[in-house]
Amino acid sequence: MGSISxxxxxxxxxxxxxxxxxxxxTRGGFTHGGWGGRYHDEVLAAEMGKGMARSGDMLFGRRTWxxxxxxxxSATDGNPFSAHMNAARKYVVxxxxxxxxxxxxxxxxxxxxSVAALDGELSIVGSASLVRSLHAAGLVDRLTLVIHPLTLGxxxxxxxxxxxxTEFSLTxxxxxxxxxxxxxxxxxxxxxx
Length: 193
Description:
By secondary structure, the chain is α/β, with parallel strands linked by helices. The protein has one domain: 3-Layer(aba) Sandwich (Dihydrofolate Reductase, subunit A). It contains five helices and eight strands; from the N terminus they run βαβααββαβαβββ. The chain has helices spanning 42-53, 62-71, 80-87, 112-116, 128-136; strands at residues 3-11, 57-61, 90-93, 106-109, 121-125, 142-148, 167-175, 181-189. An eight-stranded mixed sheet has the order 4-3-2-5-1-6-8-7. A hairpin with a 5-residue loop joins β7 and β8 (181-189). It is globular, with a radius of gyration of 16 Å. This is Dihydrofolate reductase family protein.
């Protein structure tokens, strides 16, 4: 078993839906899409760049993979995030996708057991439903919360239902010039797998 690191962009009230664009995720009538854009600065870019600089494969849920495949999969803009994501092996956890041929280097997994059998370092950006499921199964080793200084009052939250009692240790944090807190946590309980 490898290790899994998840990075989640969230508001102060825990909303993780529609971070990037107004049309990113409008499920449930969500109208606040694109809330994260105004908080981008050089400090945040550098912090996110550190994560992208680490070797390892990426892990996605179906919705995020489909969105990223369209947005990033054909990007030729010289953006280092595009280059990283296009080159990385991308594992996609889905029971409904027929294939993952739409984005190079993608591999389809049907269940969490398949995720647990993977070796190496795996990173997740977004994919809240998958992160919830992996957390419930005790499979999230590191969690980075990118906490934005606003509340939305509606939208999907990181932990919407019961989450298992789990303790994390704060291993580092950075505050950006626009008040975003990037908090890095490592799971300390329940015990090692």
